[in-house]
Design a protein that fits this description.
Layout (H helix, E strand, L loop, with lengths): L1 E8 L3 H10 L8 E8 L2 E8 L2 H10 L6 E7 L14 E2 L5 E6 L5 H10 L11 H11 L4 H10 L5 E7 L6 E6 L4 E4 L3 E5 L11 E4 L4 E6 L2 E6 L4 E2 L4 E2 L4 H5 L6 H7 L1 H9 L3 E2 L4 E2 L3 H8 L6 E6 L1 H18 L3 E5 H4 L10 E7 L5 H12 L3 E6 L5 H5 L2 E4 L12 H20 L5 H12 L1 H9 L2 H11 L4 E6 L4 H14 L4 E6 L16 E6 L5 H13 L3 E7 L11 E5 L7 H19 L18
Parallel strand pairs: 18-19, 18-20, 20-21, 21-22, 23-24, 23-25, 25-26, 26-27
Antiparallel strand pairs: 1-4, 1-10, 2-3, 2-4, 5-6, 6-7, 7-8, 8-12, 9-10, 9-11, 11-15, 12-13, 13-14, 16-17
Bound molecules: 2-deoxy-2-amino glucitol-6-phosphate (AGP).
């Protein structure tokens, strides 16, 4: 996953590719590479690290030519190494591909290709594509071989191919992942994102799924997978570069909120098999989890938003898997003198995998003989490397400082872990198990539906944007949602003070501040404590506070308790924090926007806190 570029034209290809890759750097990546066709044949250069390091390699070992592809990789499947970096080549070294997306059936395809004698060099799913084309190219011309290979793929892809056998053009196709064509003056481009090419052309052809392109310097020829011609006129992009980077959204935060259905799909991918009612983990994680003792003690450590995900995890693991769990702020854990042993598993939840306190926490745990499982978004990060096993969240790069999609994917990963342990320990009756698994499988769709609340949330945010103090209250699984909602608001709108509490705590102090017009955000979705939350709402209203209530769709009775009402799709209670997160994030975003806040880079905050 990350940036794809392709170039054919009169300019030196390496310069064009590096320029385009550089313009996608803001998305984050861990390795990069280019493949070029010239009179010597196919030449490939790859580097782990930054584009400037790839550029240095290309200065030492230059390649000339006018046709090539490039890629910046943000590791999802397979560590960030040179071998796993794109482009990937076939056995003959005459074909090269770059790819974004996930090939779901790469396992069986790889086995089939190995049986036919193909040699694989990387751990990626991408590599099957190039070997498949190689296989079909034994009997078909390249355009046909490419289409036949694409027909074999299940999953998502944006893919570009270059072939020594057909050296005057590039080939590209997409299904589910973005790929565009740029048309310049006697030069053409492929790119996964508009910003890559905006400095050279504004004439763009947006590809639809299952369309294939043959690209020369004079422009694209589009066909279907069956080879039928497709006509599409170019459109002119009128975004400036900043808007283009954000995919047309005004802020990365909003873009990332909208990316959540896809992010959660990635977290669940290859792990949840709803048809068989199974949770499947990679071999290392499975060995780790299957080796735990029945009396294992779990301690979740994390900071900030990741800590809130950990709190949701505590409710899930204790209720459904019936394992004892403590949750600690990593900054406290490392100094509280916890006594750990070899029957303790520390679960470190972290987006970046670099947070100093969390890293110190796992080192301390290991020094005491405990085991470490990381729930992490960034492959190859320090915590991922030092943990005994890693459940990657696969949420994709998160650029806004305020964590959104990383949070919901952390909760989803912890839900997978919970169900795995629950099944292993036979704690859930089959009928309930089916509901839990189906609920988890439907999460991407439910988040999509929750996003439909955006206009309503925006209107409510406008109503309360002038307020300077907010409470957020919830119970059980949505007590952490209250903490997270409050953190999101104060993070992105630093002129507002927001505090999250367990709703039952209100009478023990916070209620003293409630007065006319004081806004309180309540999470009152369907749960065994629903009536108790209603009582808390009434306590606030009795003091003339204003209640903004997030409730489950179809709850007709809630209307008379709410000054402002936001509804979210119904789901199993343990998954409700994921669905509820969407309006909480949108509310914070729109209140901050109305206050003119610097949403993506709030003052005093850093994306990754690598110092204590
Ligand atoms: C979330 O919006 C914050 N930016 C912050 O609380 C963050 O979650 C925390 O610093 C932990 O980061 P990590 O997940 O990368 O470890």
């Amino acid at each position: 996953m990350c940036g794809i570029v392709g170039y054919v034209g009169r300019a030196p290809v390496v310069e064009a590719l590096l320029d385009a890759l550089g313009r996608l750097e803001y998305r984050g990546y861990d390795s990069a590479g280019v493949a070029v066709l010239n009179s010597q044949g196919l030449e490939v250069r790859k580097r782990v690290g930054k584009i400037r390091e790839l550029a240095a390699t290309l200065r030492r070992r230059p390649i000339t030519g006018h046709l090539g592809v490039g890629h910046s990789r943000w590791a999802t499947h397979g560590e960030p190494t040179e071998r796993n970096a794109h482009p990937h080549v076939d056995c003959t070294g005459k074909l090269a591909v770059v790819h974004n997306g996930i090939i779901e059936n790469y396992g069986p395809l790889k086995e089939r290709l190995i049986a036919k004698g193909h040699k694989f060099a990387s751990q990626t799913d991408t590599e099957v594509i190039v070997h498949l084309v190689e296989e079909f190219a034994k009997r078909h011309p390249i355009p046909e071989a490419f289409r036949l290979a694409l027909k074999e793929l299940r999953g998502s892809y944006a893919v570009c191919l270059i072939a020594e056998q057909d050296a005057k053009r590039l080939f590209g196709a997409k299904n589910g992942s973005p790929l565009i064509v740029g048309i310049g003056q006697h030069e053409s481009f492929f790119a996964s994102d508009v910003p890559a090419i905006l400095s050279r052309t504004r004439r763009v052809v947006y590809l639809n799924d299952l369309e294939v392109v043959e690209l020369t310097a004079e422009g694209p020829k589009l066909t279907t997978l069956e080879g039928k011609p497709v006509r599409r006129n170019p459109t002119t992009v009128d975004w400036d570069i900043t808007a283009a980077r954000k995919g047309g959204y005004p802020h990365f935060m909003l873009k990332e909120i909208h990316e959540q259905p896809e992010a959660i799909e990635q977290t669940l991918f290859n792990r949840l098999d709803p048809a068989k009612g199974r949770i499947v983990f990679d071999r290392r994680s499975k060995r780790f989890l299957d080796g735990l003792s029945p009396s294992e003690q779990f301690i979740i450590i994390a900071c900030g938003t990741a800590y809130h995900a950990g709190l949701v995890g505590e409710y899930m693991l204790e209720e459904l898997a019936r394992v004892p769990v403590d949750v600690d702020l990593a900054s406290e854990f490392r100094y509280r003198g916890a006594s750990l042993n070899r029957h303790t598993t520390v679960i470190a939840v972290t987006q970046s995998g670099e947070t100093a306190d969390t890293l110190a926490g796992i080192r301390l745990a290991k020094a005491q003989g405990a085991k470490v499982l990381a729930v992490c978004n960034v492959m190859g990060s320090s915590i991922a490397r030092e943990a005994d096993a890693v459940l990657y969240t696969h949420a994709g790069p998160e650029i806004a400082v305020a964590s959104t999609k990383a949070y919901t994917s952390q909760v989803t990963a912890l839900a997978l872990l919970t169900l795995y342990l629950a099944k292993q320990r036979r704690h859930v009756p089959p009928a309930q198990w089916r509901k839990l698994v189906d609920g988890l499988a439907s999460l991407p769709r439910l988040i999509d539906q929750a996003l439909a609340s955006e206009p309503a949330v925006k209107a409510i945010a406008a109503k309360y944007a002038a307020a300077r103090n907010f409470y957020y209250l919830g119970r059980r699984y949505n007590f952490p949602s209250a903490l997270e909602g409050a953190l999101k608001l104060k993070e992105v709108c630093p002129v507002i003070h927001a505090e999250g509490y367990a709703a039952g705590e209100m009478k023990h102090g916070p209620i003293s501040l409630i007065r006319k017009g004081w806004p309180v955000v309540f999470v009152a979705t369907a749960s065994p404590v629903y009536e108790k939350v209603i009582s808390n709402i009434e306590e606030v209203r009795a003091r003339k506070g204003e209640c903004i209530v997030i409730a489950s769709e179809g709850d007709a009775a809630i209307k008379r308790h709410a000054d402002s009402l936001i509804t979210v799709p119904r789901t199993e209670e343990f998954l409700s924090p994921v669905v509820v997160a969407v309006p909480l994030q949108l509310f914070a975003y729109y209140v901050a926007d109305a206050n003119g806040a610097d949403i993506d880079q709030p003052p005093n905050l850093a994306k990754s806190v690598t110092v204590e």
